[in-house]
């Protein structure tokens, strides 16, 4: 199937990468050189359906024309000013994003981990300045199995050994409780608790969907106990699950949204903390910042992304196609699949260990022209671009059926 010329060229590219890159990833053996919509093309010209979408950073697919157009226009006008000066894109982006979230204020950053770090800083400052927690005593309640990024503070409250081991000492002030257990959150809260930080659906953990009522219970507890509810919607938000935010599934509005990934339209790193003035208003000049945060290129792209979400078109698509996906995947239960969890166009598929690891299944899917990613050993996580077609979903599921049938 692969020609000798592909092997020569692809292996050379992979060898160069492996020789010069830090070894912090273990990519599948494919060298992608182009992308359009839901499809990418490797350097030999072979096409693959991209069911990972860069972990939801490509919710609108590769090279969405509306996003590309605004990025290209902005590239030619102005790309960076730093926040030392105003630029003509940042204010309107913040206005639109705040409105999408139903909040007052936006703090723009770049990566998801930075949004999480920023959210923790804001929550602690709110804890001291508004709630009256004694200096340096503020705590944040987090969930087991969480994934919030890779900085030293964040990995310090992860329970994934490979993310943590040998990277300590870690910042204190975090309390872990089981995920999807509202009573455990209630029990962990005391006078020094500033915030509860959760993913409304745990993505990296394998698309773990809490039982209905959990988010509402967390909201109620946080309100009653005077604690901020922070929703890390970096992967779950912005249309992925069939609603604008995963919290919308239970009509819950957190005190703080953490956004990233798809916010940058698959073009630029763009993240944000979004909250009301009584929370985010605690940050004053000099207390937080970022050289690239709020740059006009990212703001122009982010504004277009928000405009695309305002119509509700992508959310509706994700909801409808998600049902289609769920039906197709459920039919594989007992045929090599042991469990499936689906929320919109997002799925965790547990593979029967007798048929191989998640990684081995991902390699076989690659050979059949479908890009997926394993997580936690036996799980395949898929997050197709929201522009994918129903027939493409059917084709991908058929490839999985064939792979599992051996
Ligand atoms: C990806 C992710 C992050 C971190 O984002 P980066 O841009 O990789 O730093 C944080 N939280 C969640 C839920 C994520 O999925």
Automatic annotation (TrEMBL):
The EC number(s) this enzyme carries: 2.6.1.13
TM segment ranges: none
Source taxon at top rank: Bacteria
Pathway annotation from the record: Amino-acid biosynthesis; L-proline biosynthesis; L-glutamate 5-semialdehyde from L-ornithine: step 1/1
Cofactor: pyridoxal 5'-phosphate
GO molecular function: ornithine aminotransferase activity
Top EC category: transferase
Gene3D superfamilies in alphabetical order: Aspartate Aminotransferase, domain 1 (3.90.1150.10), Type I PLP-dependent aspartate aminotransferase-like (Major domain) (3.40.640.10)
Keywords, comma-separated and alphabetical: Aminotransferase, Pyridoxal phosphate, Transferase
Chaperone keyword on record: no
Pfam families, per database record: Aminotran_3
Entry-linked PANTHER family: AMINOTRANSFERASE CLASS III, ORNITHINE AMINOTRANSFERASE, MITOCHONDRIAL
Family: Belongs to the class-III pyridoxal-phosphate-dependent aminotransferase family.
Protein's name in the database: ornithine aminotransferase
Organism: Microbacterium marmarense
Organism lineage: Bacteria, Bacillati, Actinomycetota, Actinomycetes, Micrococcales
């Amino acid at each position: 199937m692969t020609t000798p010329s592909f092997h020569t060229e692809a292996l050379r590219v992979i060898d160069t990468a492996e020789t010069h890159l830090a070894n912090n990833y273990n990519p599948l053996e494919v060298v992608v050189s182009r992308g359009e919509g839901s499809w990418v093309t490797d350097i030999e010209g072979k096409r693959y359906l991209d069911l990972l979408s860069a972990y939801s950073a490509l919710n609108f697919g590769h090279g969405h024309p509306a996003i590309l157009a605004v990025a290209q226009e902005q590239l030619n006008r102005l790309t960076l000013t730093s926040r030392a000066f105003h630029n003509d894109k940042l204010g309107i982006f913040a206005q639109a994003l705040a409105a999408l979230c139903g909040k007052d204020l936006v703090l723009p950053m770049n990566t998801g981990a930075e949004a999480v770090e920023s959210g923790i800083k804001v929550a602690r400052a709110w804890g001291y300045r508004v709630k009256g927690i004694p200096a340096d005593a503020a705590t944040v309640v987090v969930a087991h199995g969480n994934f919030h990024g890779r900085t030293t503070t964040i990995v310090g409250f992860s329970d994934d050994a490979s993310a943590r081991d040998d990277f300590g000492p870690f910042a204190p002030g975090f309390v872990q409780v089981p995920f999807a257990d509202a009573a455990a959150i209630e029990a962990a809260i005391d006078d020094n608790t500033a915030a509860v930080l959760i993913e409304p659906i745990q993505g990296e953990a394998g698309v773990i969907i809490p039982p209905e009522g959990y988010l509402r219970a967390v909201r109620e507890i946080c309100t009653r106990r005077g604690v901020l509810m922070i929703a890390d919607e970096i992967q779950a938000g912005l249309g992925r699950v069939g609603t604008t935010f995963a919290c919308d599934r239970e009509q819950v509005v957190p005190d703080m949204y953490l956004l990233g990934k798809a916010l940058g339209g698959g073009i630029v790193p763009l993240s944000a903390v979004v909250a009301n003035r009584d929370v985010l208003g605690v940050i004053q000049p000099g207390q937080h910042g970022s050289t690239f945060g709020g740059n006009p290129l990212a703001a122009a792209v982010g504004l277009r992304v928000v405009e695309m979400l305002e119509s509700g078109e992508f959310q509706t698509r994700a909801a409808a196609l998600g049902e289609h996906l769920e039906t197709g995947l459920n039919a594989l239960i007992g045929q090599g699949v042991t469990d499936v969890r689906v929320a919109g166009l997002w799925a965790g598929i547990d593979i029967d260990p007798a048929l191989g690891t998640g990684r081995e299944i991902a390699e076989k899917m690659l050979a059949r022209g479908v890009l997926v990613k394993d997580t936690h050993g036996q799980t395949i996580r898929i997050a197709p671009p929201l522009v994918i077609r129903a027939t493409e979903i059917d084709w991908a599921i058929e490839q999985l059926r064939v792979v599992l049938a051996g």
